[in-house]
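Q: Sequence in, structure out?
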Amino acid sequence: MTSNSDMRIPEHESDDDSDDESIPYLQARPKLLAKISSRIDTTSPRASYEERQDVPFLYEVLDTRAFHKRVRRLVDRWVKDEANIERASSTVRRSPRAKGASVVSGFSVFRLKAMADQRLWDTKRDGLGTTQDQPETIVFIALETLTPDNGFFMKLDEGQDVCLDSKDSVQFPSTGGGRGVYIALKI
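A: Exactly. Output:
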């Protein structure tokens, strides 16, 4: 797999650069991830996370206004790949409640937070989805290798993704630091 440094895109490239929609997701993924990763190091958390430093959030949602189109492009391409939707549906044993881009109920770029009290973040207790009204399928796409050493619950290589039921019980370690893309799906 290509390392982050090998995948960097020059800073002068605009957010409006064309993206050939005919290229399959898996082939386009390295370039899409590199475009997001190239901006993430200098991105601050959204104000709501900055203002509530005392709350032990699992992760910080980053303020991606400067590169929102890049993140949206990755999410759209992920959803457009039928194999991804089929895999997500199979994982949670539910059918999508919407079609196409409408299946996305939310997405963000995240940085896992270290927890001072060294407790495990339990998704059964603390929640993982964007809503408690309907079950969702959560997709994590690694912007770098995620492991328990940087706050993720399993090893996930850069560019790989994992689908989870928002009602699943998963324990994230307290280490923090890992970065990725979070997608909540109406599945």
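The radius of gyration is 16 Å.
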